[in-house]
């Protein structure tokens, strides 16, 4: 008997303490928004006048009692006393309240489409309160509306009586929506998708190809309303069905048996008064679930009051799952017990998923879990007492519903045994890095002779660091979601490893691999190898603010999301080739490889000494997949230029560093030193010009005409002194930037095809940054340029009249009121102005 009692006590402990993966929740409100949403809504979907009645519901009265315990109120505290205590928490320790509410939540899978980022925190922000990273659930209707705004923007002439080409608009929307879906499907941060079609029309989904005429009429009406009234909400039956069908098709496209796609969550059952309650029955989804057996469908919110119908679907279809959220805490205890019993009547227990449907207030997360544990204990212990199941079986059911079912369904790859072995020295990390193991396997299949992987990153000082891993160890890290650790101080040491004020002996940085950057090394390498770039993260996998590569990626993401802008960058590698001299003076250790040449010439000396080397470099670049557009001699002695093909910004910077290594390594094989030094000899300097084009990001429509001027003139040009702290980071950089030297000049200005300006407009949409050299940390330099451009696109021309297009030579531009300082320190005082980007 004692043994049986101990087993039951152990089961009770598991029910009350086992960690959970909250498979469906929403963002918390920003602090300035807390008073704009009624707190009493935490236990109801009612709105407006109906919300006043919530105080008379059993769910509210029960929650009120539990909140007293959360806040530390007296047992008889009324609602006003509870709110007063809550305000004290919000004033004194708001994050402490969140941590208290999130105590036993290991990770959250968050639908971030409920409100905009000016109202709620970004989904990543919540990572600080849980051991694991927050997984993103993309709400497809919100994504579609975002695209619609961009697509219809160019049809705004409807106000002036110009007919709208609905067919072209629909084709453009469809193409871009599918493109966006493919991006999200490939994004490891996105763990699933969600549809609120139940709210917008109903769950009675119709095949869109049978309703072409209705589609056309509805889209025409939608466009007129959106352009005329600014109402972009998608609530037209046929349009919503088409968006859902497109999503499901995109998820299943290209899958190899028996692979399953990322899950699709669907709102079912109870909601606010927007829904058609009758047609929120998940039974309407049976044809859709049957037609797409490799797309997992998650029926949200217990499908209440249609829990039995949902249970039937999960029992009959391998790809149907039931979420048990929202009824906790919105129903009474008896209602919750009934829902859990009904879900267990027919639904396989490996198909049930815990969620809180937490939203806006952290207390919704806490109440949902507290009440779920109470009801789970009541129901499960009764089954054990009646000997329907053993305590071991009950324990497995509980652990599966809480954690393992979501872990498997959303492919989170969390090993609880690994987590239990963590110590205080290494905080818990719930979600491993989600590498694309298939792409790595594909790379190794094509390059099966590779023995080692160069893991590389660029420090704050612009130093390229490398750690070499045997391919077996690298493969293990990829499969397990692992990283490599480096001392935090190594991110800011000088080129000779001397320390700087930013170095700290305490702390660890983790390097996460970006497999999209993996590339073979050149054949001249001592062994078969490949290289891959990494970004810095903390022990939980959060990107570090000081990581140059992560900062660039973050700013590029903001440009794409907020302004539909991608940057396409083509770098020029200017390099001076040096050979050793017999002169014993230190300053005369090297001399130019060739001296008898000029820009674009091919002298006999070049032909004999340089061309074989240049050819080998070009051939090596080609062999490892780096596209070279041209190469030629430059003006300086021993100076040559390699022009790389344009690529998306982050890929372009990665490729630039890989190409530079090729130049350096091939040159060293010829006993030649390749240097990027801005001024290795008096006279002609060495730059690192970058050609940057603005391209549409997610939506393939023409960019607004003023985006270019806002980005380059209002943004980059206005902040140029601050930018130069990153693009010209060394004192010697300013010896190169002089007037009448085709080096970009010393004036703050821009000009079409004017090489005496730091910003040269090459053609519409394409500009050249000339105040840039090889000493720069190129991730930071491009981040500064992109960030300044973002600020310009956001703020516009609020700084006054824009400087005009300078078409005169440097001797005639003295009317410009600003010039670039001739040394570094003045730029450092400006660089702080860019920190808030």
TrEMBL record:
Q: Which residues form the GS catalytic domain?
A: 548-837
User: What Pfam families has UniProt attached to this entry?
Assistant: Amidohydro_2, Gln-synt_C
InterPro entries per record: Amidohydro-rel, Gln_synth/guanido_kin_cat_dom, Gln_synth_cat_dom, Metal_Hydrolase
* MF GO annotations: glutamine synthetase activity; hydrolase activity
Q: Which Gene3D superfamilies match?
A: Glutamine synthetase/guanido kinase, catalytic domain, Metal-dependent hydrolases
SMART domains associated with the record: Gln-synt_C
> Superkingdom of the source?
Eukaryota
Which family does the UniProt entry place this protein in? Belongs to the glutamine synthetase family.
- PANTHER family named in the record: AMIDOHYDROLASE 2 FAMILY PROTEIN, NODULIN 6
Q: What is this protein called?
A: GS catalytic domain-containing protein
Specify the species.
Patellaria atrata CBS 101060
